[in-house]
Amino acid sequence: MATQGERYTRNETDSAEIRVKVRGRLYEGWLQSEVERSIEAISGTFNIPVSLDPGDPPDINRQDDIEIWIGETLVITGSVLAAAPFYRRGDCGFRVVGRDRTGDLVHASAIHKGGQWRGATLERIARDLAAPYGLGVKVDTDIGGPIQDFKLYHGETVVDALSRAARLRGVLVTRDNAGNLLLTKAGKNRFKGAIVRGHNVISMDDIGTDEQRHSEYIVYGQSNCADDFETARGLKASAKDDEIKRYMPLVINADGNTTKGELEALVQHTVRVRRGRAYGFRYVVEGWTVDGEAWPVNERVPIYDDIAGLDGEEWLITLVKQTCDLKEGDVTELTVRPVEAYDTVPLKSKVKRKRWAPKGDDFEHTRGPRDKARS
């Protein structure tokens, strides 16, 4: 019977290898490696020491375009941020560190002529913001109609602006393996593999917590369709999380002018998302691939784990970290959560202020008379 160390040591004939491709040349062989992708990050990252022959370093430099392959699956299309040799007793290597091309959007400020769009679709806004970086935009879900008015905030990053625009249409902004921006929904596809205790699972940790859950959610909104200020500001919707036994209310003020139906949708969405993110498991499974395909992010996977209380239920893969080292061999860390944890609901796109000034007063009061309007 194989020992723990022997069992998880990479088989050299296994086709599931991490390969680095720069300027058409493939580099293989490593001491340790790590490739991470997450639904909560618009950019994947990698840290891969490739083999180094003394006096003949690989032709990989900072700012080079790079592709990371796991088996036959392209998992990251990005840029090199660091490329430098290292050595220690008994071995030497050349460490390559980088991220997805979309990672530039996390650190760069959003700049667009005029800083505003009127009657533009979410796709148009995304393309305008991504174009200076040479990034494509893919859409695989319904993104709704045009956004009436969208403005950039001074100094905000591109990813922050994109996230705000996407929330207006209930869409998730992420990346694809080819280095494009992707406008999508959570968990549209089901992965062909499964997480099975006693078969491919090395370890499991429950990472859920009720820290961000509340017993009741109360959402207040305003409307420009009411005849008086008190009625206009008095729209309200509420929902309870019956699993929280202690008294823990949370009051939320909705942005812009809203309807009763929109407040109901928002409060139900808040309950679902906070409950969903309160549950999660971190699994470490053998290998990097299933039937030659690397474990993906943002796909549903069935889980068979009697200790976790799951018998084929499909949860969402929210993080994938593929690692290799001399001790554990090739393993994949998977974070899974209920799909509802990444549910989205469209938000209002236009803030319309009701004119509260007395008749004949030409001053544009942007807030109600009892709300301390400021000039």
In short:
The chain has helices at residues 4-7, 104-107, 122-130, 158-168, 229-232, 260-276; strands at residues 18-22, 25-27, 33-38, 45-51, 65-70, 73-88, 91-100, 116-120, 137-139, 147-151, 172-175, 181-184, 189-190, 195-196, 201-206, 216-222, 235-240, 249-257, 281-286, 289-290, 293-294, 299-305, 310-325, 329-337. It is mostly beta strands and 375 residues long.
**Whole-Å distance between the termini?**
79 Å
H/E element string? HEEEEEEEHEHEEHEEEEEEHEEHEEEEEE
* Secondary structural class: mainly beta
Architecture (CATH level 2) name of the domain at 4-99 = Roll
Binned, the helix content reads 10-25%
Largest sheet: 14 strands, mixed
Task: Report the top-level CATH class of the domain at 4-99.
Answer: Mainly Beta
Tally the beta strands: 24
- Stretches where pLDDT is under 50 for at least 5 consecutive residues are 1-14, 349-359, 361-375
Say what the CATH topology of the domain at 4-99 is. Phage tail proteins - horseshoe like beta roll fold
Principal-axis shape:
globular
